[in-house]
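Bump. Still looking for C2H2-type domain-containing protein structure tokens.
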Amino acid sequence: MTERVFVFADEEELFSVMKDLDCLYCRNPVAASKHHIKKRHLRFAIYYKDSGIGKFSIPCYCADGGHGRSHWHCPMCTKILQRTKDYKIHVTNHGVEMTDKSTVELQPTSVLLETLQTDTDDRTTGDKSSCQKCGVHFTTTSNLRRHQRLQHCQVHVMPVLCVDAKNAIYVTPKDPHGPRVPVHIRKSFSLQILLCELEECWDFMKAQAQRGNPGRECRHLIRTSHARPYTPPPPLCVRSLEDMARRRLLSGTRTQQCQEIHSRAGLDGVDCVYPVLWGEHELSERCVYFSVYTGFKDKWCQFGRTHVSFDSRSGGWKCLCEFRRSLCVHKCLSMWWLFQERPELLGNALDMSADGVEELEEEEEDGDKLCPEEGDDIC
Ligand SMILES: [Zn+2]
Ligand SMILES: [Zn+2]
Ligand SMILES: [Zn+2]
Ligand SMILES: [Zn+2]
Ligand SMILES: [Zn+2]
Ligand SMILES: [Zn+2]
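Sorry for the wait, here they are.
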């Protein structure tokens, strides 16, 4: 069975979850048409604010409730509640704030009969009800207005990119000002994961839980409601790595290590190097950031990924790993990606002559030319 989600940020998300499937929230098989979803579920949705972000939950009629009776699954714990009133109280205790815009109160007895009825009142109005910014359609203008208020007021403030859909890992800028240094976060209601790699955020959420607000999100996690869906980056090609080795930009050992980590990431079904391109997906900014697969977890790579940054002006590289001052394999992997996709940004590093390699090999021991001393780097 497909993993079910019980909280949504907008209606389109709900429709797309069950595109071409039977409804996951009904006991009897029924096509999850938009019409069905609207009539049986959305109409009774409960709206609330979760750390300031608008969300909603829909009633469920699956076998868990017994005899197809309507019930509610809590998205934050595993509890199932039969009565709408109890569900509202329950999620309020999790720290969300009811905004309750629902016009129709759920009447458990009447909805059972509705499966037999055919539907004729599927009103779709014209362009009036589609969002100018993202093109999503809405049934009513009030839904559209709510969407615009919630999705587009904050959307350009802080981007959130999904770098690993399988493990629900995202990156978002750590701070709203200055260089957009990324942090990794993980969030999945179905996997019951709510994590930020920053210690201060971990402390914040722990304190909130102790105060009776489990599931309260840090300033990074709350942004995931407008996360951009995962898009695969240009994949690394072994041929370009071989080219780098041939041009003696990488030593034999490093080339081999890169290849090993790259294929291990492939086996795990994740991207080895995910370039973090903020803004319009362009490398217009001075600093280029990468989320790089490590293959294990540690204090500096809690989710199995480290951060590498490259200052295209100074040519300086940084990595969060314990070899931060030398040319670690994560920097090499990121360099591989840049060499392949944006060689112009590597600049001088590419002009090295063949006899530069001895120098490079030595420097691997104790710091590197490709990795100058920290100082003028801004990343
Ligand atoms: Zn249904
Ligand atoms: Zn259910
Ligand atoms: Zn709960
Ligand atoms: Zn929109
Ligand atoms: Zn955080
Ligand atoms: Zn590293």
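The radius of gyration is 25 Å.

Edit: fixed formatting.
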